[in-house]
Design the sequence.
């Protein structure tokens, strides 16, 4: 090979080598920067409760996504006590966590604690239940499409009672997700002119109180055709009241969550149908939203996860 050609070839090869190395170096730098943006991240989590299967699944989703990203979670639960939950958020602020995820025990009262986190510069995300307090900033809210879920429940009730009769709602109006479910239910049930909502009383989302509420409604409306329970504890409480009154099979019940006990009741005929949520996906999506935000990305202010309906034909 002539010396000129040999020199040219060496020059080209050397240039290519530097180009490849340069690109590799830039890619490595970018990867290092992306990794450092989320290195050592600690996220404080305050759930509504850790005793309910829905929140156990949601926590599992949070942990799976956090583990895959190398995040540390500090998980607590208010257990329906907003004062306790406020203290938990204050602890997270003191610990200087990188982000906070809250499932509010009370959608309005929690506002003062979230405002304190805002003032401390800690980004706050809500999962399942939104914050309705004014003057606070939530980066993103991740939840089931509760309005659509409420509409699914209304259609199930209408089907169960032949599109005619008196219906009662066992409510829990302190919680934003329930407000959305009831809104969807009432909007959809209004499309059935022969169905009347005759009562809407709180069972506070727990079985024993829902049982007492359902008993009161049955006494006031002995010709009631159906209950809509805003969660499965409400539906199961209503089922117990219906059984006690000797009206099993005559008063239909539709619930929300499809926890194992409710699914068993559906298969046995005690509950007509349940709206299914995807709590694990809600948890995973919330962690991914935190990651995107902390990495400098754009996060949607509201992320809705679809619901479905569980009936006897769905199987276990």
Sequence:
């Amino acid at each position: 090979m002539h010396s000129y050609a040999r020199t040219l070839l060496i020059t080209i090869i050397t240039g290519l080598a530097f180009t490849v190395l340069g690109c590799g170096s830039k890619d490595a730098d970018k990867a290092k920067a992306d990794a450092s943006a989320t290195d050592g991240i600690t996220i404080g989590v305050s759930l509504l409760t850790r005793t309910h299967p829905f929140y156990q699944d949601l926590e599992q989703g949070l942990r799976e996504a956090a583990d895959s990203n190398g995040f540390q979670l500090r998980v607590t639960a208010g257990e329906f006590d907003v004062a306790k939950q406020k203290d938990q958020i204050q602890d997270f602020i003191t610990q200087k966590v990188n982000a906070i995820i809250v499932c509010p025990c009370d959608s309005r009262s929690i506002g003062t604690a979230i405002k304190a986190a805002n003032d401390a510069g800690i980004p706050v995300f809500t999962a399942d239940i939104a914050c309705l307090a004014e003057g606070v900033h939530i980066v993103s809210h991740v939840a089931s499409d509760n309005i659509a879920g409420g509409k699914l429940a209304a259609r199930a009730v209408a089907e169960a009672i032949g599109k005619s009769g008196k219906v009662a709602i066992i409510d829990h109006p302190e919680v934003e997700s329930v407000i959305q479910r009831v809104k969807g239910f009432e909007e959809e049930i209004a499309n059935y002119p022969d169905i009347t909502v005759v009562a809407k009383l709180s069972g506070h989302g727990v079985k024993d109180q829902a049982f007492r509420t359902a008993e009161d409604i049955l006494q006031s409306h002995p010709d009631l055709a159906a209950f809509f329970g805003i969660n499965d504890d409400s539906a199961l409480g209503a089922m117990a009241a219906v059984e006690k009154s000797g009206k099993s099979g005559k008063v239909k019940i539709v619930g929300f969550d499809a926890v194992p006990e409710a699914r068993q009741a559906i298969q046995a005929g005690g509950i007509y149908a349940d709206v299914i949520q995807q709590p694990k996906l809600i948890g995973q999506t919330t962690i991914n939203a935190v990651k995107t935000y902390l990495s400098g990305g754009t996060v949607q202010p509201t992320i809705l996860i679809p619901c479905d309906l569980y009936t006897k034909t769905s199987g276990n």
